[in-house]
Amino acid sequence: MNQPQPDPTPRGPSYQGRLLPRPADEVVDQGLDFDVRTLLSRRRMLQALGLGAGMVALAACGVDAATTSDTTTSSGSGLTEIPDETAGPYPGDGSNGPDVLEESGIVRTDIRSSFGTSTTTAAGVPLQVELTLLDLAKDAVPFAGVAVYAWHCDREGRYSMYSSGVEDENYLRGVQVTDADGKVRFTSIVPACYTGRWPHIHFEVYPDEASITDASSAIATSQLALPKDMVDAVYATTGYEASVANLAQLTLESDNVFGDDGAEHQLAAVTGDVTAGYVATLSVPIDTATEPTGGGAPGGGGGGAPGGTRPSGAPSAPGTPG
């Protein structure tokens, strides 16, 4: 800290040629007028040395400009891109057979019921899913106008269009287009836990609604994980009994999709209860400057969780659980 120095003239203590209005106090306590005059003196000195306005601001803040460096990320946001994941064996996007994205009516908010030739509604505890997409290639601004296709299993652990007994259903599948805030919202139910997989919701992101009919055009494929305290409460209710034993065999760290980081970037924030239903929210940063590595599905119309205790009718064909 600079201390006041005696002025050689009889005018009183000064600092850098300026009288101190409060001689008994430190230089930093001399008042706004003194500080402003000090700042102006520094600015004139730096400008005389040819330094820019940014360096002036650093000097005014007491920062040694010569030792500063740029530590921001390439996007300037510091966010991590949502991990790319497999679409699993039951995407229904045409990549392995069934294709719900070609059907009229797939763009909808409420995905609990089938549409087209069936109106069967999937039973279960209500769940609102809200995803906020961010464009990392543009400093994490809201990613407006992109299409999000979401799907998941039902309360019994079955995937519509694939599992025995629900091959002719297309419930729990739907597309929404992000609004100006980069948000999409789906009305659904809490999915079951089947053998080998933590409770999850799949989603694919497409550049726009017109692109959804070509699975290869997806710019991101990932999964949302549901928190344990929430699914514990749900699985204690009628209809989810088989999920209790399946969940007891798993942790986020042992799951074959979320296990690499414990779903650090994919675990939803959840509010609500089993009576009123739940709301699950997740931010989904996407970097279009990177090449997507997720997506894809095993060939054929099956795929599923091998062996073990699973809800009746749950996926049982060979393949990696998705």
From TrEMBL:
Domain of life per record: Bacteria
Keywords: Dioxygenase, Oxidoreductase
Composition bias, Pro residues: 1-11
A Pfam family assignment: Dioxygenase_C
Keyword match Oxidoreductase: yes
Gene3D superfamilies for the chain: Aromatic compound dioxygenase
GO MF annotation: an example: dioxygenase activity
InterPro entries, alphabetized: Intradiol_dOase_C, Intradiol_dOase_core, TAT_signal
Every Intradiol ring-cleavage dioxygenases domain range: 121-196
Name of this protein: Intradiol ring-cleavage dioxygenase
